[in-house]
Structures are given as structure tokens and as C-alpha cells.
Amino acid sequence: MSSFFITCAIDYANGDPHLGHALEKIGADAIARAHRQLGDDVWFLIGMDEHGQKVAQTAEAAGVAPQQFVDGVAERFTAMWATLGISHDQFMRTSHAAHHAAVTALLERIFAETPDAFYERSYTGEYCVGCESFKQAADLHEGRCALHPTRTLEAVTERNWFFRLSAYTERLKAHFAAHPEFLQPAHRRNEILSLLEQGLEDISASRARIAWGVPFPRPISTGETQTTYVWFDALPNYWTAQFFPGSRAPWPASVHVVGKDITRFHTVIWPAMLMAAGLPLPAQVWAHGFITLGGERFSKSAGVKLELSEAIARLGPDAFRYYLLRDIPFDGDGAFSWERFEAVYTAELANGLGNLASRTTAMVEKYCDGVVPAGARTAEDAADLADYAEARAALDGSNGYPLHEALAAIVRTIGRANQAIQDAKPWVLAKDPANRPELERVLASLVRQLARQAVYLAPFMPGKAEALWTALGGPGTAAATAFATADALDCTGWRVTKGEGLFPRPEPTTAP
RNA sequence: GGCUGGGUAGCUCAGCCGGUUAGAGCACGGCACUCAUAAUGCCGGGGUCGCGGGUUCGAGUCCCGCCCCAGCUACCA
Question: What fold does the segment set A337-487 form as a domain?
Fold first, then answer.
């Protein structure tokens, strides 16, 4: 049993969870669950980034202390993840004392391992008093802050700790060359490679004006103690997580699941920090895409609104998970629409899998008193196994994590089963006792197909997969059944129950 | 502006190193069936493969030019 440590990017505690946050968690959860069924010893880490100027300002605006504010945000995030069935083993928060101590330890470790990694430098930037932060040229409109156009920007100089990122350009290039799997999908790797070609600039590691954060362990030459800047506070969470009480997070991580917008931080800055600290690098970074809504991108600055709880309530959390992972390519962008959601649900879940389960269990009850007969393996079994091999290849990390391809392969097995019924016509076979062996062979094959679907869909729809497994009378749980076990499954003697439909057809309500 | 990747049926996309009548799913139309959630299966209509040149016996598939779209072009977590 090999160890598999998967992480999500920690979410910034500046607002409530939205569709963009959910996509990443759902995708990573499917990967984590799949690896449990592949036989790995999985540790799944998610959490929150709770420090920084924006959080402090938002808390102040709300009239509460920063800690109190982030406590509330964290509660809403964890409640959402519970609703969606996210199976994380650890929820880390950067405001936790264990994180503070570990960040401090990491910085000291860098000072010890690479004495010249940090140095002091004066930084002069355009400072907006309204925002209480420095502005980059790109943030300016006609020389003024876009958010506070009535105020003039001040040229402010401060001394900070800087990290010698530029010194790692060659080592990073070498790492990318030696480990082509380090960053996937491939088009993201190309972007980073071109960035490395341009050469890297040093980055600041501490800030004077930010109070809400981890104190940088060494004062600057004036004696002033500054606050650790975001790179050195947030990115290390993957490593500091192991020092939380009860954690078994094994460093290095197997894969960091992150959004394409922060690929650079995870494949350049973070690895350079680890190199400076003399620590091993994560094996892989997977950059997923974004969901758009009405043509607009979901992000923290969301002008786009979609009530997550409403979307989940519409057809249930399992259907929501399925729709997102099936219809949004996990290596690129995709659009959310209520029409597509209902179309995919109706076609593939209600009419496809749900009806397949319904007609199969009905026939086993009607023709075999509900007990699955014995039956030799069929051409459908063989064809399914080829599809499941493809599904596994999309889940085991060997080609990144194109989850939509895994689901596409599973969907093919549903179509195959429905076609097999049509071809074999069990209701005709049942009329003549002479056809009994053939009837049993067909029904046994169908139950095997459904059982495998339950097992392979468990990472994507944990609730519905279990309901299907139960309806088939499978032993234990679908989630506890390894993929390899499913491939060789024999369902003889299982007792099926038809029960209610797995995926009831949606009410013909009008979508908003 | 530069770099990268794209523009193929109403929609989402496959089409590898050029080669018979350009494919899939969804949607749409017709037929069949009744085990099933008015579900399923079969058949069918539908595309000047972004535009214009070129190479070739032959080009969505290679070359050149142009138009359009997306991503990246680092201190926002």
C-alpha cells in the first residue's frame, strides 16, 4: 500500500464558498476517493488561508476581530464541504498556532540551510492609503488607484526581507526537465517553462504594514519585526499541516491540486522555497481550469452570482458533483448552465444509469425471485474492463487527472448495458423455460455491470453509488471495494431490491 | 505587443505521422419494443472542416498570409 498525499489550495477567508471553490474540492475529493479504491494509503488535506490585509480589513469592516471573523468563515466553508461529501482527512487553518510555529521553523530552516537565501532590501512602491497596500502598475488607472481615484498615491519606501528566487532559475529548469510529470496538464507546463526562460526576480518575504499574520522570525536591521508575507505563510501550509495535532500528513505531497491562476506560485516559488530549506519537492502539481457562468469567470472578485446551496439542492449533491466533473473538463475551463445540468442529469443519470438499475433489478426480482443467478462472463464484461482501464488511467495520475475522461469511459458501460438488454430481450427469453440458462447469463452479466458502475462511480457520487450497491445487495460498501476487486466481481447469490428510483426525473419546473 | 493553444454538424467536442462517401454524444424527425424512471434500441436529416493562396496524384490533416477566440506575460490572496 503506497502513500498518497493530496492537497487542495487553501481558500482565502475573505468571503463565502462559491462554485469555483467547490469545483476544486469536488475534483480533488474524487481523486482522493479513487486512490483509496486503487489501494493507496490516502491523506487528503484542505484548508483556509486566513491571514493578510484583506481579511483584516474585512473583519474590521464587520466590526469583529480577525480571528473571530475567520472562525465564522471557516465554519461556513466546512459546512459546505460536509454538504458536498468532501472526504478530507484534515482541515488546516493558517491562523492555528501549529501553523505559526511551523512557518517560523521553516523560515529558520532556510536561514540555516541557505544562509544567503534571505536578504534585506529597500522597496519603493506606490502606496494607496485607501487600500492600505502597495499598488502595481497594472492596478493603476491614469496614475491613481482604481478603487480610490480621489486619493493620490504616495511613493513609500520600506525595508523588507527578500527571498533570492532568482538564484533558483536554473535548478527549477533542471527539475522541470528531469520531471516532465511535475506540472500537468502539459500546456500549463509550457507556460511555466517560458516564464523560467525569462528569468526570475526576487520576491519579498516580509511586510511592515501588515499586522494580521505570522511574525517574521528575524527583525530587519532597524530592529523592527515584520510580518511574514503571503508566499511564506500560505504556500507552506502543505508542509506545516503535518505538525497539527493528530495529523499523519506525509511530506512530500503526491499532488497539489490548484487552480490554473496560481500554478506559478506552486511550481516556481514553492519549490524554490523547499530547495532553500533542503526539503523534498512535491511529486506533482495539477492545474485545473475554471467554471464560467454566463460567459464570466468565477473568482473571488465574483461579479457572477450563483447560490451554491441552491445548485446543490436542485438535484442533490451527488448529481451536482457528477455534472461538474462530467461536463467541465478538469484540465481546462467549462461553463455552468442550468440547462446543461438538467440535460446531463436526465440523459445520463435518470434515463441512463437510474433506469438501467431499475429495469435490471425489476427483472431479477420478477424472473429470479430477487436472487442474482450464476452466469459466465460475457462480451459486455470484456468490453467494460477495457473502459475501466481507461477510467483508471485518468484517475491514477499517470496522465494527470482528466476526470471528465474517466466519467466518459464509465458512461460508455451504461450505454453498453442498456443495449445488451435490448439485444437479449430477457422478457422474451423468460417465456420459454428452455431459454433459462441464457436468461440467467444475461441477468447475471447486467448485475455485474451495475456493480462495477457502483464501485467506479463511488469517487464521483459517493451517496448514490452506495445506494446502488445496496440495491444490488453487494457486500460491505462500494467505497470499500477496490477497483481491482470490482473488475473480477461475481455477484451470484446477491439479493437485489428494486426500491425507489435512484435518480428521479426532475420536476418540470421552470429554471430561473 | 510577445509567447502558446485553438477556430470541424444547432450545442460540446474526436479526428495521430496527409489517402476510400468527415465521426461521437446531446438536441431534432421517423420506426421498433415493453423488463424499466412516457425510460430503452434502431434508422435518418444536418457540416463549402474560420478566410485566401500554395505544395501534392490527393489536405480539416503540411507551408505562407489574414481574421477571430482563449491562456500566459510574476509579489492579489
Answer: Isoleucyl-tRNA Synthetase; Domain 1 (1.10.730)
